[in-house]
Amino acid sequence: MFHALSGQAAAATHHWPVLVLRRLAAPLRSHAFLQMTTSPCEIRSTSCFLPSLPTPARLKFESELAEEDPSRPAILELRTAHRGPLAHHWLELNGRMTIGFGPATLPFIDAGQVSLQDLYGNIKRISGMHPLPPLGLPPINHHYARAPGEGRIVGKPIRLTTAQSDALVQKLQHLKFVGPYIPIFHDCRTFACTVQARGQGHSILPCYLLLRGYW
User: Quick one: which of 74, 112, 78 has its CA closest to 96?
Assistant: First the structure.
C-alpha cells in the first residue's frame, strides 16, 4: 500500500508542472477558447438548500429562447450598476440571458473576454488572444455578465424579432475571434454597441468611428 501511495504522489508531482505550463501558455493561444461554470439551481433560489428537492437540469445557452412565443418580440436591454463614465455596461436579452465584455486579466489593454450568464447561473466565458502575447497573463473569471435582472436599464430597450434574437445568440455562442480590450476604443460600451447593431442588422462602424456607445 505504501508503494501505491508513493506511486500516486510521484504521478501528481510529475503532473502539476504540465498544468502550470498549460496555464502560463494560455495567453499565447491564437483563437478564442471557452470556460464554463454550471450551477444546478436558479440564482437566489431557496430550494438550492433543500436536499430533498430535485435540482433542475442545466440549461443550454443555444436553447435559452427556444420556448419563447415566436410571435412575441425579444427585448434587448442595456444595463449598468451605477452612473458615471467608468460604469460597467452589459446587455440583457429577454430577461433570461446577459452578455458582458471586459479585459480577461488586467483593467487596461488586455485580451478581451466575453461573458454570458443565464437565469440558472450557467456561465460561459470566451477569452481571446492578448494583443502582445509576451505580456499576456492567464485569464481570470470576471463577472462581466451580471445575473439577469440586476442593475438598471440605460436608454430605450431594443425590440428584436425571434429570428434576430436567435441569430444573435448563435453568433455569440460560436465566436471565432474575441478582440482585445482597449479602453474607449473597444471596451464594454463599444462591445454592447456592436451587439445591439448586429442584433438589428446595422453596421458596427459607428460604434468605433463615432464612439456611439458613449452617447
Answer: 74
Q: How far apart are CA 124 and CA 37, in angstroms?
A: 7
Provide the residue-wise pLDDT of the chain in tens; the chain has 215 residues.
434 444 444 444 456 665 555 555 554 444 455 566 555 444 333 333 334 334 444 445 545 555 555 557 889 999 999 888 789 999 999 888 999 999 999 888 899 999 999 888 899 999 888 888 877 788 888 889 999 999 999 989 999 988 888 888 888 888 888 889 999 899 999 999 999 998 888 999 999 988 888 87
Q: Which residues pair with 33 in a beta bridge?
A: 127
Q: In this structure, are strands 74-80 and 152-160 parallel, antiparallel, or unpaired?
A: antiparallel
Question: Is there a contact between 206 and 197 (Cβ–Cβ < 8 Å)?
Answer: yes
Spans of all domains in the chain: 32-47+61-214
* E strand map for the chain: 33-37, 74-80, 89-93, 97-103, 112-118, 123-127, 152-160
Q: Can you give 109-171 as a three-state secondary structure string?
A: CECEEEEEEECCCCEEEEECCCCCHHHCCCCCCCCCCCCCCCCEEEEEEEEECHHHHHHHHHH
Strands 123-127 and 112-118: antiparallel
> Are 107 and 72 spatial neighbours (Cβ–Cβ below 8 Å)?
no
